[in-house]
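Narrative of accomplishments. A recurring question from our advisory board has been how the design workflow behaves on a single, concrete structure rather than in aggregate. To address it, we present the structure tokens for one chain from the evaluation set, followed by the sequence designed for it. No filtering or post-editing was applied between the two.
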């Protein structure tokens, strides 16, 4: 398993709900979570392979900024 971390522009639970369908559609993600308490709004993704490109594309498509840490 690989754990990927991303800095995002998410602000609230509504933002998280907006990105949920896209992330849930990525079949090779084991689990994901967003730390809204962190100033960088960290998205953490656990997957068996490097899915960074798919995660970034999905979050950007939902209208948010994201960069890999």
């Amino acid at each position: 398993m690989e754990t990927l971390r991303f800095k995002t522009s998410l602000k609230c639970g509504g933002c998280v709900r907006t990105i949920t369908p896209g992330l849930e559609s990525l079949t090779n993600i084991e689990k994901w979570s967003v730390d809204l308490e962190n100033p960088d709004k960290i998205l953490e993704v656990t997957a068996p392979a490097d899915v960074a490109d798919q995660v970034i594309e999905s979050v950007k498509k939902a209208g948010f900024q994201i960069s890999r840490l």
